[in-house]
Structure formats: C-alpha cells, structure tokens
Write a structure and sequence with these properties.
By secondary structure, this protein is α+β, with helices and mostly antiparallel strands. It contains 2 helices and 7 strands.
Length: 125
C-alpha cells in the first residue's frame, strides 16, 4: 500500500506544479512570436518568446529593455517587439543615419544599416 500512496503523492505534487505553472504563464506571462527583422541578431522572425506582463506595473522600462506591445492598442494586430533606447526626459536625435541619445552616439550592440528617414527625430526630441 505504501507504493500506491507514494505514486499518489507524486501525482498530486506534479499536478499542483502544473496548475501553478499554467496559472503563472496565463496571468503574468504572454507567449508571442517575433514578426519581422527589426530585432535581428537578438531575435529572429518566427522566434517564440515568453513575456512578463507584470513587470512594468511595478517598474518603468529602462534603456536596452526589450518590450512587447500592440500598436495603438489594436487588439487585432500582432505584437511588436522592440528595444527601448530612451526614456522620458532623454533627448533623441537621428542625424546622418546615426542615433544620438542625450547628445551621445547610441552604442548599438548589433551592426545595423544606417537609418534612411529620421522622421520626427531629424530634430532633437
């Protein structure tokens, strides 16, 4: 009878662990796919990622954080995966294809081609 109790004990522990893991991922995590090449070298198109939905409720994004969001809150769109380069209070300028944050050349970890169109950041923001 002790073997049956031991098997039952292991089964209950495994089930409890699975329920806790599922609950954690369902309520705190988000599984999504990377779409596009904008994060290439770090993340490739088609990569599956697990995102912590809770962290930015208790802290703010910092430079070099990778964030996931829906464009304009559009629930029908795919999630965008991007890297934070500046936070509120920082200035950003794109000049001659280079990005400057707070007047200093942004140190990119990955070699990327020059930015062709600076948009609003052609003047310091």
């Amino acid at each position: 009878m002790t073997i049956v109790k031991e098997i039952l004990s292991w089964t209950v522990e495994i089930l409890i662990t699975l329920v806790i893991a599922f609950t954690f991922v369902y309520f705190i995590g988000l599984r999504t796919s990377v779409v596009g090449q904008s994060m290439s070298e770090t993340l490739e198109s088609g990569d599956e990622i697990l995102v912590n939905r809770f962290i930015y409720k208790v802290s703010d994004p910092k430079p070099n954080d990778i964030i996931v969001f829906l464009p304009n809150g559009n629930e029908k769109s795919h999630y965008y995966v991007k890297r934070v380069i500046a936070v509120p209070g920082d200035t950003v300028l794109i000049q001659n294809g280079a990005v400057y944050v707070n007047g200093e050349l942004f140190d990119e970890k990955v070699d990327v081609s020059a930015i062709e169109e600076a948009g609003l950041a052609s003047e310091e923001l």
